[in-house]
Specification:
Shape: globular
CATH superfamily: HAD superfamily/HAD-like
Strand content: 5-15%
CATH class: Alpha Beta
Strand order of the largest sheet: 1-4-3-2-5-6-7
Number of strands: 7
Structural class: alpha/beta
Helix content: 25-40%
CATH architecture: 3-Layer(aba) Sandwich
Number of domains: 1
CATH topology: Rossmann fold
Bound molecules: magnesium ion, zinc ion
Length: about 220
């Protein structure tokens, strides 16, 4: 996996020690808060999909520039709630636009660096931001495959069974389930009947989040 500054080193480490070894070797990560990594005691974590959950969904295209990244206030509130409940937070996002040449890895990294900084100003920490830059079917990290969650668990010592995946696409729910997490789907309930919980939109997620994850 790649971090912003130490891409190569991360890639090597993931290749040698990652749970899915080569299959997830190229997923990219900002590597935020790497100094907080610990392997001995398991963390519980909420994994968040990005587009449609963290930021306003760009529609059929991609968010190519930070200037077009519209952070959702509901996400900020949800993140604050999960952190208060003792969960770490990791964003896991498919960004196939990189493979298609629509945007560069540097552009995605810049968006994620700015996102991390914006949240830090609100005294909110993300443990990591991980993205899959690959074409569908070419890797183990693109959701619905669970590679990004498994890699995060390995890297940060996350207990997946105590963790959650929240997303607005069926693929998010499937990736979460395959990783052994409980799942919350945001959107029309019939689109992801297999999710453990479903809420219609981010505003309802904001209202329900504390109840849902403390029940679970
Ligand atoms: Mg999404
Ligand atoms: Zn991938």
């Amino acid at each position: 996996m790649m971090s912003l500054k130490k891409s190569a080193r991360h890639a090597n480490r993931s290749r040698k020690t990652g749970p899915s070894a080569g299959r997830v070797a190229h997923a990219a990560s900002t590597g935020l808060h790497r100094n907080r990594m610990k392997k001995t005691s398991a963390r519980k974590c909420v994994f968040f999909d990005r587009d449609g959950i963290v930021n306003k969904h760009p529609g059929p295209g991609y968010v190519e520039r930070w200037e077009d990244f519209k952070l959702l206030p509901e996400f900020v509130a949800v993140l604050r709630a999960v952190r208060k409940l003792g969960f770490d937070a990791v964003i896991v996002t498919n960004q196939q636009g990189v493979a298609k040449g629509i945007m560069s890895k540097e552009a995605v990294d810049r968006i994620h660096r700015n996102l991390g900084a914006t949240l830090r100003k609100k005294h909110l920490a993300l443990l990591d931001i991980i993205y899959c830059p690959h074409y569908e079917g070419k890797c183990g990290c693109r959701k619905p495959r669970p590679g990004m969650l498994l890699a995060a668990a390995k890297r940060h010592g996350i207990d997946l069974k105590s963790s959650w995946m929240i997303g607005d696409d069926k693929k998010d729910v499937e990736a979460g389930k395959r990783a052994g997490c409980r799942t919350i789907f945001v959107g029309h309930a019939e689109k992801a009947p297999e999710a453990d919980f479903r809420v219609p939109d981010m505003s309802e997620l904001q209202t329900q989040i504390a109840n849902l994850i403390s029940l679970g």
